[in-house]
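Take one protein record:
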Amino acid sequence: MTRPTLERLCVHESVENVIPKEAFVEAFADLSIPAELVGDDEAFTETDAVASFHPRDAYLDAAWTHCIRAGYDAFDTDAYEAAGIPLTNSTGIHGATVGEIAVGYMLSLARYLHVYRDHQNEADWHEPPYERPFTVQNERLCVVGLGTLGKGIATRADALGMDVVGVRRSDDPVDGVSELYHPDDLHEAIEDARFVAMAVPHTPETEGTLGAEEFALMRDDAYVVNVARGPVIDEAAMVEALQSGEIAGAGLDVFETEPLPEDSPLWDFEEVIISPHRGSATNRYHLDIAELVTEIFHQYQAGEELRNRVA
């Protein structure tokens, strides 16, 4: 496959939405071409590669565009296809980071850590009801979606002694997962689970995967974890389920509207943990993305198939 040889990597300043832009540029110090920080007034040629958080029409003049986030919904894939310009994304690097935050939710919800912290803020020596804290060991976790995120959750939950089952279309075995269910059997998969973790991409098929019917089926001591995308859960139905006691609580990193509006009822539940869509946020996240971009750069220069190509 013949492609124009890349001569410059342009890092758009929008990457600072999730990572420090200067440090990200510095991460490419050993690349064979210069990496430069650029703004909205930059023009591009067929020897430029672009790494960006936000889309711009001008990127279609470059040779290759990399979206530094896993979700590339904002990018016009049809336009890239029509122009013959490769578009890649940053999926496949979040198994550890997102897996850890999901397990962190479960441990906190099980062992009451979030409530202890709330009372610590009031200097209140709060002792829980005897029956409230529990151990995650031997509790059933249903992971809905077993891609990079789901596998990252499953591996860590299995290491804690949880009984992990999963929902996916493929019946290929997954390490740490004792039983697989087809999406058509979602209700059977979730009805006995103490935790249900959402790890599916947001597509028309997955939107509203958990809704009123599913919450009614779940145990009343069950917890929902969402580290996927907000719309895969019907948020209004989840609020109703929390208010009615159909489910016990939730750990949520993603929401239908972000930032989560101040008037959202979700802020007010003691048994709901909220984080600001930062499941992948660590102090080396820029290096994780840079390693991926570097790998794809070398594939591009060699005329090879590009990892994570979405258009």
Residues 194 and 277 are 23 Å apart (CA to CA). The two ends are 16 Å apart (CA to CA). The chain has a mean pLDDT of 97. The chain has nine helices and twelve strands.
